[in-house]
Amino acid sequence: MSVFLLQITCPGMLLKDKEELYLSVSVLGQHQKTQCVPAAFPLFFQEKLVFKKTFADIVDPGDLVELLERRFCFLCILLGKVLATYEENTRDFLFPDPKLTRGHHGFDREILMKRSSSFTGIAPKLRFSTSSLITESLLSSGRSHIQGDLNLVHHSTPNGKLQTKLPKKNTLSPEKNRHILATKSYEQPTIASKSRSPSPYTKRRMCELSQEARQRLAHLKLGPYEFRRDTDKPPFVVRRVCILSKVFPA
């Protein structure tokens, strides 16, 4: 997701402190701030802040929307101290109602910020726009984490505290270890098999799941966004390999 900040206006307001100020933006637990600008209204930023967040435990787009509704984003103007703030749930901030947007592409918004006690002017007005890219990720990495958690053993101590221990491993003889390693290396997929593209059934099923996600997102009416799959990549990559050979004299 990206937030493109345009300007902040506050007609008739003169700041006594002539130091530079900046705008701080907090979204989904991530904090970024703009470059400092002169403390004179209107404030011109023309700056884009990019935020990236992965939700490993969310599969249904509806669950993602509910999470965005529960979490809030914060904006504040800082000039040594807080001058004005703005707070809104993340869904409405990223996907506003079309009636609230304007501009050439219909994406620009204007919001009134809440001024602090030290700010004597009228409420500042912030003009900005947002854009979002929703990417469907594969679950292989998430499954490996879950399997790792299942391998942990939790038990209670007499004082009521929980302790976590790894399961004990049986000690094997060197001969058995060599046999197991040889078997595992044989059972593991080769480089050639990893580079092959998915089977037609796998591709068809992945497309069906992605289509379901697209339909769910359209039903939720999130507004302007872009949806992309991790599988929208070439099935394999051809790498250039340089082989050096040593020539021995006859």
Automatic annotation (TrEMBL):
UniProt record, GO biological process: motile cilium assembly; spermatogenesis
Keywords for this protein: Phosphoprotein
GO MF, any single term: myosin light chain binding
Phosphoprotein is among the record's keywords: yes
Phosphoprotein recorded as keyword: yes
Stored InterPro entries: SPATA6_fam, SPATA6_N
Name under which the protein is recorded: Spermatogenesis associated 6
Species annotation: Strigops habroptila
Source lineage: Eukaryota, Metazoa, Chordata, Craniata, Vertebrata
